[in-house]
Amino acid sequence: MLKISEALPRFSVIQNKTVILVIRYLYMMLLAFLLFGIILLISGKDPLQSYKDIFTSTLGSAYGFSEVLVAMIPMLITALAVALPARVGLINVGGEGQLYIGAAFATFGALTFSNLPAWLLLPIMIFLGMLGGALWAFIPGYLKAIGLVNETITTLLLNSVAPKIIGFLIFGFWHSALDTVKTPNFVAAARLPTFFGTRIHLGLLIGLILLIIFWLFVKYTRWGLEMRAIGNNAQAARRNGIPLKKYLIVVMCVGGAIAGLAGMSQVSGFYGVLLLNFSMSLGFMGFMISWLAGGEPLGILLMSFVVAVIFTGGNLLQLTRGVPYSVINLLLAITLFVVLARPSLIKGKKA
Amino acid sequence: MHKSPDSNSSLLNVVAMRGITKAFPGVLANDQIDLDIFTSEVHALLGENGAGKSTLMKILYGFYRLDSGQIFINQQPVSIYSPNNARAIQIGMVFQDFSLIPALNVMENLALFLPQLPFVLDVKGINQRIHQVSERYNLEVNLDALVSQLSIGELQKVEILKLLLADARLLILDEPTRVLAPHEVQVLFKVFESLKKDGYAIVLITHKLKEVLECADRITVLRTGRVAGTLLRSDATEERLVSLMFDKKLRPTVVTHKKASIEQVSPFLEFKDAWTHGEGLETSLKAINFKINPGEIVGVAGVSGNGQRELGDAAMGLIRCVRGKRYIFGRDFTNKSIQEERLSGVAFIPENPLTMSIAPYMTVLQNMAITRTRQYARMGGLSMDWQAVHADIERSNQRLGFSFPLYIPARSLSGGNLQRMVVAREMIGDPRLIIASYLTRGLDVQSAIAARQALVQARDNGAGVLLISEDLEELFTLSDWLIVLFTGRIVGIFRPEDTDVYEIGHLMTGSEVEHVENQ
């Protein structure tokens, strides 16, 4: 084994890691579903039937599958917003707030420049969304870099501030004539294009491209290398002449920008309007996915898909089985628990 | 299995270790080791780094579980599962880094360690007992002093006291002299003498030959996990011990005092009345004035915690001077960052490679690149030229005579290999100024010679070197100038030939200064 990996270091390591990752997640999902099944049994529901419902409703039809992909878009992007700062050891719990502020900035663009054509307006909105998220993330990033406050605390606290700002903007300036809890509908030019007559929008493509960039960036570039060094051992990185403060601030801001982009894609691609409290914990979902995946690009893709399946399936479960929707959160929590506990079935293979 | 005690000896066979074997992933740390430890003796365990000394003693102390073998106490087989276990059968160990609580005073620290600590402390009674023991064995320490204020020598005393109070009869000391000044070492050996008289057994783990010959009664030499030989003090000579420790003949450090033929240019490193502000446990540097000319090695001596680390960091620009100036290659670098300094050709070998210099989960090769990512970057940074990194490291290794694997995570290297890796990395690109802290820590003798050789070579080629070390012998042989630090001040600058170990040692511990003040 060692000889092979020495001869072909890069290639075989990827192969090996990928297989292990997939096996690991499949196994852990199985365990989570088993535990959740017990809970369903206790509450008198048939777990097998419930699972069948979840999967047939989501993966069994083209429409169901498209809805899964729609739900997956913001999760994928916010997960990246967590995974990138995690590479330098920053714990960004603030995806939720950054997403809101990004959405607000994008909405500002949509409402202000509504007579521009789509090819100009959409890039402007994307830029504004990213700018908003980045500015919101700059606060914790800067405070962390000067050694004042831990970013976990600041990002978390700022999460409860951001929706209030959105509320202020909607109630005060942007609300539509008919409804005070949302803005007027965006003009067509401010909507991300959708595909195949479904609700899948350009955000999916953006998310996938970001994922690939993230993977290539971390793996191959000089900055990726320096970021990994910081995440590994910040003190050593500093002593080796890597500008630590600069990285902490910039990476945090880029993470925020990605979350802001998720906000933009939600209001522009999904809702077509800025709605009060529209996110419903998408940012936290991204946080969970990123940690479930251990920050690995493939894992992020896989986990955001799985979580999206559970999420969409849960809606249906509520209708068909009379299972309260909150039970789905229970399943997500069990998944998180199982993955974080990292049961060591395949320990031998990992070593 | 059950061996009879040595027939020609009337001594009680306190501890017998038989066939001790312990493997760690990739290394056989202990391979069928037999060892007897008698009462009333100082038994030195001698060997290079990685010979298995610490492992063997940590097995005896219950810190590691043995893979196979048997331990006998007074001919009774015992199993030792944990340090608690070991203490119950009167075995105690002092580790390299002490385990005292800095915020508590000496008495509290000692009381914490007492077996059967009562619910309400009998402070008076404990005090009395401590006084009795400490007087008897020359271990007097101020019991009310906070541990954070003690010197290293005093800390050591407290650690030994702790074991004595806990009724340990066998004391294991892991490189106790590593951080002591020469005269403190003498004090420690006196303590050993008095303990011996009362029937204590002492195991001294060390790799310093001279100390072994000075204080040990019996010497067991380990080499690559096996016993290379056990000698009585009277049979042991330096040559014999060296030949047991190493297979090959050592080549001595070649110190060529070839003066670099460089015309008087500005010094490579210069501090002018530099002051720093130490935060937390750091030492503040006060009124630092010295310079390193091209082709000079300036050695810094001092007991750890007296500002050596801070001096190295200040030289690197990690700590800013709050007053005074710092010049690198003649340019004012007072407010320049470590990045700029590294780019201008300064190399840095820190005191602890694992925490200060490497990213443990990245491969060795990746670690080799992180100091000069800009240089190895291709396409404006979009990719890295790993071949160039590989070539550079091969060249550096060849020059130094090192070799270590490149494609494994750095954390799986041994301490010695880590240090080799850092030295090899920092020597890439022929730095003009080298700031080296504890250059040879963790290196076996061969590699230590190679590393020193590299410094000397760099010096002879006109580089400046700041060498911070605890090894006075190393400082004396390598340095062109010697600086002694005490509580953040420079208390002496010497030519090595104009001074001796004892003068430096006294300055290091401040005793000379105190002496002057008392008069």
Q: Would you tell me which CATH topology of the largest domain in chain B applies?
A: Rossmann fold
Gap between N and C termini of chain A: 11 Å
How many whole angstroms does the radius of gyration of chain A measure? Answer: 21 Å
Largest beta-sheet characterization of chain B: 6 strands, mixed
What is the count of β-strands of chain B? Answer: 22
Number of DSSP strands of chain A? 0
Look at the structure and give the CATH class of the largest domain in chain B: Alpha Beta
Structural class of chain B: alpha/beta
- Counting DSSP H or I runs of 4 or more residues, the number of helices of chain B is 19
Coarse morphology of chain B: globular
* Low confidence ranges of chain A: 1-13, 345-351
Q: Which oligomeric state applies?
A: heterodimer
Query: Main beta sheet of chain A, described?
Result: none
Verbal overview:
The complex is a heterodimer of chains A (351) and B (519). Chain A has helices at residues 2-7, 9-42, 47-59, 62-87, 95-112, 118-145, 151-174, 202-220, 222-232, 234-239, 244-271, 282-292, 297-321, 326-341, 347-350. Helices cover 77% and strands 0% of the residues of chain A. Chain A has a single domain (62-327), classed as ABC transporter involved in vitamin B12 uptake, BtuC, CATH 1.10.3470. The longest helix of chain A has 34 residues, at 9-42. By secondary structure, chain A is mostly helical. Chain A starts with a helix and ends with a helix. By secondary structure, chain B is α/β, with parallel strands linked by helices. The longest helix of chain B has 16 residues, at 182-197. In chain B, helix 3 (106-113) runs parallel beside helix 5. Chain B folds into 3 domains: 15-245, 3-Layer(aba) Sandwich (Rossmann fold), CATH 3.40.50; 267-345 and 433-519, 3-Layer(aba) Sandwich (Rossmann fold); 359-430, no CATH class. Chain B is globular, with a radius of gyration of 25 Å. At the A-B interface, helix 9 and helix 10 of A face helix 10, helix 12, helix 13 and strand 18 of B.
